Structures are given as structure tokens and as C-alpha cells.
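In the previous chapter we treated chains in isolation. Here, by contrast, the input contains two separate entities that must be folded as one system, with a combined length of 329 residues.
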Amino acid sequence: MSEHTVSRKFYVAIFFILLLLTGVTVGAAFINLGPLNPIVALSIATIKALLVTLFFMHVKYTSEKMTKVVIVAGVFWLLLLLSLAMADYATRLWS
Amino acid sequence: MSSDSPAAVVPHHPALRHHFADMEQQKNAASLGMWLFLVTEIMFFGGMFCAYLVYRFYHFNDFAAASQSLDIRLGAINTAVLIGSSLTVVLAVSAAQAGSRKQLVGYLLATILLGCTFLGVKAVEYSEKFENHHVPGPSFHFERQRMTGHPEQPPVDPQHAELFFSLYFAMTGMHALHMIIGVGLFSGLTFLAWKGHYTPEYYTPIENAGLYWHFVDIVWIFLFPLLYLISRHG
């Protein structure tokens, strides 16, 4: 089988990066960055989610292209939902 | 079936279903199926995230005030616990690949333990909400205070704060339900792993349960900043 084995040290390193990012996002929440606060928090969350998906869920190593298509389609659908819904509700108050 | 038929001559793994060509194809198909299920889960949680974002946009100050009553410390501890459980899951998969039964069982048990820790901390948070009457319903109560440092803004509308807590309980409750299902799943897998069901050739259930667990972890990775963090400085 074309199994890609990753050393356990690498997983532990990813774990510590995730912990570090959690610390950073908690710290950033207590600094007043104005409108940047949610952007920083959600950017860090996205980086963490990417690390988990790529390395813990083995998406980086999978040979199955369909899996990647399914994931991209799922995330794209979610972005459509959020962006179009927010575009609607955010512009209703203009009138 | 006669003894000289091809199926009897070519030895194959007992876990290989007859409609798959080989173990790798079966594994890839199972993984793809799991990912399709996770996409439906993205849709499920996505709807609630969308509702939260819309109402947060409409009632920004009320949501900020309600969000500030949450305990960041407990939320951060739970984030660390969940990330730790993701690590033990990935180590369990790696132990299954290496064919080490004892390590596999150990890492699965560690995952269950961390999952229960998360649920325990969540229970502490929920009981605090009940004590403070922050649970939506007839006994809901939220102080009509002004936000500290914002005397120019109108006082908090308790009804909108109640909306925040409704979404808080819907989202964290659904997440906790997924955690409970995950702990149940891993309990069954631990039993089967202990009985020696999984080999380096066949450990698909471990891997797919792992995918589910990581997904639930990712949901929390987004819930934590959205509910606990982003309204500290509104």
C-alpha cells in the first residue's frame, strides 16, 4: 500500500504549534485592535483548521484527488452561504 | 465453490469486501465516503454559524456584553484539551499503521479521557449559566447595564442577550453532542482494538473515526474565537 507514514515527532510539533496559536489568539483578544480583532481571531482559527486538516487528517498525503475535490467543494459552499447571507443582511439597513 | 476457482487461489484479506478490487481501493472509498459525510456536517454547522454572524451583526453591543460573561479561561483550557485529543487520535492511527496493539489501545483510551475532560469542563460552564440565569427561558435574566467604557451606547437589551445565549447553547450543545457520539464511537473501537481487530492492512474504522474527531475539533477551533474572544474589545 502506498501509505505515507509521518514521524510521531512531527505530529507532536504540529500539536505545539496549535497550542501556541491558541495562546496567541487568547492574548490578541485582550489587546484592543478595533475592527481588526475579529479578523485576527478568525485568521488564526483558519490557520489552525488548515494545520489540522492537512497534517492530522492526512489531506496533504492522500493520493485520492476526489477527497480534495470534496473538501474544496464543501468549503466553497460554506463561503457562499456566509458571504451571500451577510451581503444580504448587511445591505438591508442602507435604506 | 471448487477449490481451483480464482477466488480460492488468490488469498485476500478477510476484511476485503468482494466489490472492491483491493484493500487500497476499499480504504480510499471509505475515506471518500467519510469526507462526504463531513461535508454534510459542514452544512449543518455552517447554518448555525451563519445565524450567529447575522444576529451578531444586528445586535453587536448586546452580543458583545453577553459574550463577555463567558469564561475565556475555561474556553482556552477546553481548546487545549481538544487539540491534545486530536494529537492522541493521530498517534492512535499511527500506532495502528505500525501494528502496535497496546499503543493503539492506549492512545484511544487517552482520547476518550480527554473527550470526557472537555465534556466535564463544559458541564461546569453550563451549570454556571444556570446559576446566573443565563439559560434562555422564563427564568432568563441579564443585567440591563451599559457596556463598560462605552457610556455613549444604549444599555444592553436582555432580549438580544438571550438570543446570544440561545445560539451559544445551540452551537456548543450540538458540538457537545458530537463529542458524546465521538466518545461512544471510540469506546467501541477501543474494545475492538483490544480484541485485535485492527492490523496494518486494515484499520479504516480507526482512521475514519479519527477524521470525525478532527472535524469536531475544527468546529470548536472556530466556536472558541466566535463565542468567547472576538467581542472582548467591541
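Chain A has a mean pLDDT of 90. The helical segments of chain A are 8-29, 36-56, 65-91. Compare these points with the single-chain example from earlier in the chapter.
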